[in-house]
Amino acid sequence: MVFVTGIGIISAIGKDVNETLSSLLENRSGIGKINHLQTIHAANFVAGEVKYSLQELENLAGIKNSNYNRTTLLSLLATQEALLSAGIKDTKEFRTGFISASSVGGMCHTELLYKDFLENKPHSNFIDAHYTGAHATDVANHFRINDYVTTISTACSSAANAIMLGARLINNNILDRVVVGGTDALCKFTFNGFNTLMILDKEWCKPFDDNRKGLNLGEGAAYLVLESERIVKTENKKVLAVLSGYGNANDAYHQTASSPDGQGATMAIQQALEVASLSFAKINYINAHGTGTANNDSSEATAIKNIFSENVPPFSSTKAFTGHTLAAAASIEAVISILSLQHQTIFPNLNCTTQMQDTNLFPVTSLQKNVEINHILSNSFGFGGNCSSLIFSKS
Amino acid sequence: MEIYINGSGCISHQNTIDVTDFFENAQTACLPKLSAQEPDYKDYVPANMLRRMSHIIKMGVAAAKTSLQQAEIENVDAIITGTGLGCFEDTDKFLRAIIENNEQLLTPTSFIQSTHNTVAGQIALLIKCHKYNFTYTQQGLSFESALIDAQMFLNENKNSNILVGGMDEAIQPYYDLLQQAEHIKNQENIIPEIEKNQTKGFCLGEGASFFVLSNEKNKNTKSVISGIKTFTSIKDGADLQQKLKFFLQELNLSISDVSLVLSGNSGDVNDDKILNDCNQQLVEKTNIAYFKNLCGEYFTASAFALWLASVIIEKQQLPKSLINKEINLPIKNILIVNQYRNMEYSFMCVASC
Q1: Which of 222-241 (B) contact A at CB < 8 A?
Q2: CA atoms B165, B60, A127, B271: torsion sign
Q3: Are A384 and B156 a contacting pair at CB < 8 A?
């Protein structure tokens, strides 16, 4: 068994767990006008930006002149909170790892300097900070974690895979303790990428609504501290949740689109249930991937029906709060799922009013308190057909 | 745990698609950029898919397919890849378009193929593999991360065949960026004996190396990966030597059991110092050869080294250009000691079986 003993998060709805919880309880979406991202499209779209400049993020982290880019600083802040929340002061006392996830790493910085490079103008060396794994090296070094450090980049499912890998490293007795999660900063590269795919909603996204028009991009980072049963027992640690199941499969249908029959997603959910030794009926709530695109929500709803048939548990997508934070999404939603478990509360799927005609599924659209929640399924899917599901259980 | 290599495929600066030719004609290269020798990709991918594929995807798919053919299997239980740089050709293309067209009138093709998991995703699509699919990116340990996952996967799942690979591309803009960052060696400083370099910089290489790995030995088994270990900081030559000693001890080996060390010198005088210091202590007891003067330096060059070690063990012979002395047969254990910019180190041990 693998235990979650710490959580840390920064996103459009708050710079830490407390602010995140308040926003969720008060229906406060973080999606709004674009202020930090330098794009010609800023006036025409909304996004889930973290409300701080690079300098302000550095100040929050209590560091100076770090030269870290936004991706790294977001990662550092969420990791700091996760370690603090797990009461870890010494990262050397057990075999400790850092498993991160990111889709574009240092792109937020690279894209600002690439024009100078193309025009042969002098520019500072940005290529060494560009690599998607570079932030993990920096953050792991910052917290003196070095028993195992790696980064996963499987597009929008990345952080789910980081969490899954962390659990496996503990289960295989390679590590005792591991910080797992993901980070992605908004950048012109991804913004324009999703825009060319014509899957951005210019207004607030409406996951699982029959009239949904696309997703809103977001940014952020979140990390969990996973610890082995041995540490939890000997150190008498407070357990926030149990990571009881995980599954990974590939849709093998199309480079970007999900299959209409949701095959990859169905397989990932099935595997997660098998690992957790749970029947589908034990799942009390699904934190869905629910991006708000026509394709994802319909494919995911089909996968959910494949597993749960007529007994679909309450589900919601919290992306209308945070925006789609890409490689960080699964860890941000893992923290939100753990908050759901801790507070026995289902956070609503905002902006959804019309039931989807093809599957007749309808998400939870208002805050539900005092719900008995023992097991939560959290889904994440990405380009390249990558599908991952996690199950968090009450300790 | 033992991991059997039941198939392997490699695209590199050498003619690694034709292994016989490679053993006869491999040459150390004295160029700042070592581009891959590419096969006719039509032999590996349907033309309609090939048209859209970037350089790294083609290399990856061809290497993956070669390893599947060798292992005589059509599908696998997992696809695990590592790439330090990811799909830079498509990344560069999309970035240029953003800048040149001021964020307008863009097309999505290069964007959707720019994610690091594109190669693993395309292989899955090509062979219709719905199973476990992971992509790692951790600079000089990207391939090793994939291999460590592979080791766990084979431990967790009996009777499995999995596809594991590492790939990186050396397209011109990336070369230019590295040159401006002063990482590339000047042509006049390049010498064939990579370990004797006294100047800074490396020669950039590229390639893709894939392996069909299994926990089951069969008639196609070429060699066995007996150990892998990674480090994110090494203090000095003595520290590296100490860690190597522990690594071998865990495998019940001593350095004299190692027929050959493949040392990951990049040709950069500073970055190679720790390796050279360590090698000096090993040279009396074993044979040391260098591989980056064959394939160039890149994030996943260690995957090329693993391919090389595996074919040497399978054939029980050495490529003529690799080492200037006779080695006692049988070649039982080959140790790969790699470093990337003196920041990341790894050990891999490959044995006969």
Answers
A1: 230, 232-233
A2: positive
A3: no
Tokens linked to B57? 């995807």
**pLDDT tens digits for A244-289?**
999 999 999 998 999 999 999 999 999 999 999 999 999 999 999 9
Name the DSSP class of B344.
E
Is the CB of B133 less than 8 angstroms away from the CB of A125? Answer: no
Does ipTM top 0.95?
yes
**What pTM value is reported for the model?**
0.98
Q: Give the one of B98, B137, B181 whose C-beta lies nearest to A125's C-beta.
A: B181
Given B115, B124, B180, which is nearest A252 (Cβ)?
B124
CA dist., res. B185 & res. A344, Å (int):
60
With an 8 Å Cβ cutoff, is B172 touching chain A?
no
What letter represents residue B202's amino acid? F
The structure tokens listed for B298 are 């890149």
Nearest to A361 by CA among A320, A284, A304: A304
Q: Determine the residue of chain A that is closest to B141 in CA distance.
A: A150
Q: Token pair of A47, please?
A: 């996004």
| Cα distance between residue A17 and residue B344, in whole Å | 34
Whole-number Cα distances in Å, A250 to A303, A355, A388: 13, 28, 9
Residues facing B211 on adjacent strands: B8, B164
Residues of B in contact with A148 (CB under 8 A): 148, 230
Cα dihedral B86, B208, B123, A191, rounded to 10, equals: 10
Residue B340: partners with Cβ closer than 8 Å, 6 or more residues away: B139, B140, B141, B264, B266, B297, B299
CB distance A254–B125 less than 8 Å?
Answer: yes
Cα–Cα distance between B335 and B279 in angstroms, integer? 12
Which residues on B lie below 8 Å from A161 (Cβ)?
134
Contacts of A109 (CB under 8 A, 6+ apart): A69, A70, A126, A129, A130
Task: Determine if the peptide bond prior to A313 is cis (ω within 30°).
Answer: no
